Amino acid sequence: MFYCSNAYGTVFKVEVADKRVKARISTSEKNKNGEYINSYWNAAFVGDAYDLAKSLTDKDRIHINKCKITNEDYTTQGGEKRSWLQVTIFDFEKLEHNSPSADDNKDTTKKSKSTKKSTKKSAIEQAAEELSDDDLPF
Fold first, then answer.
1. Per the domain annotation, does 136 fall within a domain?
2. Which domain holds residue 19?
3. 3-state DSSP call for residue 127?
4. Per-residue buried b or exposed e for 27-44, using 16+ beta carbons within 10 Å of the residue's own CB
5. How far is Cα 27 from Cα 99, in angstroms, rounded to an integer?
6. Closest alpha carbon to 47 in 69, 21, 70
7. pTM exceeding the 0.85 threshold for the entire prediction
8. Does a structural domain hold residue 132?
9. CA distances (Å), 71 to each of 1, 34, 42, 68, in order?
10. What is the CATH number of the domain that holds 34?
């Protein structure tokens, strides 16, 4: 698993389920030629993000404050083992449609943030917050 934060994406195919909201999200970055490279992810909004995620619709832009990425294993009907990447989102902000994009790096973006904040943190989350850039091996 990999914890991440401070990412932007666009939401589509939103499905409200019991205790989580399932969706697809797309993210992008520019390559060295200035062209956008898109990635598509399976996402689940859980915990404090669940209530706000129920109001998401196709093409909504979000700022992801806290998530983790994991490999989810499954077996095909033919018995072959495969996996896909799952993004589990714990905290995010819904961006207004006419707000600046992530590339603008402006603090003028209007956001709707989930109001609940969990005060409990796992040992992994606490350790990740305590790491500085100097501690990283790359």
1. no
2. 2-120
3. helix
4. beeeeeeeeeeeeebebb
5. 17
6. 21
7. no
8. no
9. 7, 30, 11, 10
10. 2.40.50.140
Domain annotation covers residue 135: no
Higher pLDDT, 46 or 129: 46
**Tokens 């992008």 appear where?**
28
Query: Of 10-14, 23-27, 92-96, 119-123, which gets the smallest average pLDDT?
Result: 119-123
Per the structure, the count of domains in the chain is 1
Specify the long-range contacts of residues 31-37, CB closer than 8 Å, at least 24 apart. none
Which tens digits make up the pLDDT trace of 23-77?
999 999 889 999 999 999 999 999 999 999 999 999 999 999 999 999 888 899 9
Domain membership of residue 131 (yes or no) is: no
